Amino acid sequence: MVELAVSVGALRLANPVLAASGTFGYGLDLIDLCPPERLGAVVSKGLSPLPRVGNPVPRIVETAAGMINAIGLQNIGVEAFCQEVAPELARRGATVIVNVFGERPEAYREVIERCEQVDSIAGYELNVSCPNVDHGGMEFGHDPAQLVALTALCRAATRRPLWVKLSPNAPHLVATAQAAVDGGADALTLINTLRALAIDPYRRRPVLASGCGGLSGPAIKPIALRMVWEVHRALPAVPLVGIGGIESGRDAVEFLLAGASAVQVGTAIFRQPSAPLRILEEMEAFCESQGVQEVRSLIGGLEWR
Amino acid sequence: MAKPTWVPHNGARMIARRDLTARLTERHDLSPTCFSLLLACPEPVHAEPGQFGMLTCGSGMDPLLRRPFSIAGVHSAGGEATVELLVKEVGRGTGWLRRAPLGATLDLLVPLGRGFDLEAAATGRPALVAGGIGLPPVLFAAQRLAERGACFDLFLGAVTAAELLVVDRCRAATDAAGGELILTTDDGSHGEAGFVTEALRRRHARGRRYQRVLACGPDPMLQAVAGWASEAGAVAELSLEEPMACGVGVCLGCVVELADGRRVASCKEGPVFEASRLAAHWRP
User: Fold this and answer.
1) Under a CB-based contact definition with an 8 Å cutoff, are residues A6 and A13 in contact?
2) Searching chain B, which residue's CA lies closest to the CA of residue A207?
3) Which residue in A34, A82, A115, A130 is the catalytic one?
4) What is the percent of chain B with per-residue pLDDT over 90, rounded to a whole number?
5) Residue A130 falls in the annotated catalytic set
6) Coil, strand, or helix at residue A132?
7) From the CA of A30, how many Å to the nearest CA of chain B?
């Protein structure tokens, strides 16, 4: 038997495989194919204070070993989540991380304050790849000063675990990681999607209605691994949650070795809704075959040269 | 209380969708661009006309995503099922399907989405309208309606004679139902010349007062059907096709805009929508 439990900071998880925000609905959409209570945690679709309709179509396009999306943060709003979804997730025993975004810092705080009234929510993950309308549309996650302030504002609203999901598009990865920690983040999720473009040469137009979007899938895995490793090396005491193109148990193990305490599975769920469960099984089999008794012993185990 | 709508249920209030390992048992060329696939599934499949499946279209990470295909027919017997798909080769995924060896195993997530309202269709004499590779859900509906003894007329259109698919089966289903099969080609090479929707309008003008139309085909055809239905006071059920990553309502890539401004996942609330629910550009 392999011990699968891990801790991300103070948050103990039954296993290290999580469903990523925006790929698992609100946690109940795939109960027949991938019961949320069997995962380490589920990260909700990004929630804003009010519902949002999102972008026009086309919103997605497949690319080589990946896909680009520009969904536009469509969501049902925090109130509907708290009233209609969270109780059932709690009844099922799922560990729930609420992904939070806003166009103003106060919007993030509003979402967290509403969720604080729901006992069963385990923690928060801030999506900081959102343009700040108070700041000329610059993404929170691209500016360390903004990121410190935003994280501190959210930190003041909760004592629950607070994760910040870093953008790989920020000019200085370690500086933004440090900023999130300085603001009070308990852990960092990395990476979000890479800004990308697909072109229709016949129409001479971008494929997506919004122009650019975010690249995900196996194509980005080596970049994500490198970023997890760089942040882990620079900030070894900070718990990391690795995400980016994870398709197999072996991929997940690689992220743990690079320094992640847990992983999130995203685009793989689109290929196979039960992918997180398969990845967990494969991870367990890897550990058994390699004589690894505790998954947590893999964390940061990369031997550099 | 959680809304019971988070996971789609079938008419029996059961979650019918399953992620199956299917085996490719037969493939037949139907036209220069289209072919049929028979997929043997290890358990019964409870699918309704208009529902679809997500099918693996490659053996590795590229192409990455499954492709959605409307179901053309299902035969369940002896604890197993055969699912039939009609496919048009349009890119890498469908090209792979055209060349995959017989006996290959493919992941098939099925059945998904909401199909046509056959209960309502069976109460009158509906028009079934298919354009090109929009035929599969219409063929499935025709077969199911014929099985229950309901009458319908089937309009099948294509750009040219060689692209009219499985005409014999369409004729057999229509004959069994006591209805009329109307074939059209854009180039006039077979049947009535012009668009299939023009043939629908002609029948209507001659007094065939359809109360309901079930349609699948290219967007301009569906818009023309919706436009006609709006004028004629008929209910139009349109099977839409949107780019789709997951098929199960979580990627939100396939949203369709409704008249009330909402954008809903067509894989879950559709792919069949009543035209009157859709945003105005669907009803010109």
Assistant:
1) yes
2) B243
3) A130
4) 93
5) yes
6) coil
7) 7
Q: Has residue B2 got a pLDDT over 50?
A: no
The Cα of A79 is separated from the nearest Cα of chain B by a number of Å equal to 13
Which tokens go with B177? 């139902």
Question: pLDDT, tens digit, for every residue of B19-70?
Answer: 999 999 999 999 999 999 999 999 999 999 999 999 999 989 999 999 999 9
- Number of structural domains (chain B) is 2
- Supply the CATH number for residue B262's domain: 3.40.50.80
User: Which residues in chain B are closer than 8 Å to A64, comparing Cβ atoms?
Assistant: 62
Specify whether the backbone of B152 is left (phi greater than 0), alpha (psi in -120 to 50) or beta. beta
Task: Say if B12 falls within a structural domain.
Answer: no
d(C-alpha A113, C-alpha B31), whole Å: 60
Is A32 within 8 Å of B17 when comparing Cβ atoms? yes
Best of A21, A23, A24, A29 to substitute, by most chain B Cβ atoms within 10 angstroms, is A29
Judged by CB atoms closer than 8 Å, whether chains meet at B243 and A65 is answered as no
Q: What pTM was computed for the model?
A: 0.96
Report the distance separating Cα A27 and Cα B250, nearest Å. 10
pLDDT digit string (tens) for A52-102? Answer: 999 999 999 999 999 999 999 999 999 999 999 999 999 999 999 999 999
Q: Chain A: nearest CA to B191, how far in angstroms?
A: 33
**Does B1 sit within 8 Å of A84, measured CB to CB?**
yes
One domain for residues B93 and B180: no
In this complex, the residue of B65, B107, B250 whose CB is nearest that of residue A67 is B65
- ipTM field: 0.95
Helix (H, G, I), strand (E, B) or coil at B155: strand
Q: Considering only A29-38, A125-134, B4-13, B125-134, which range has the smallest mean pLDDT? A: B4-13
Check: CB of residue A175 under 8 Å from CB of residue A144.
Answer: yes
Domain that holds residue B140: 118-282
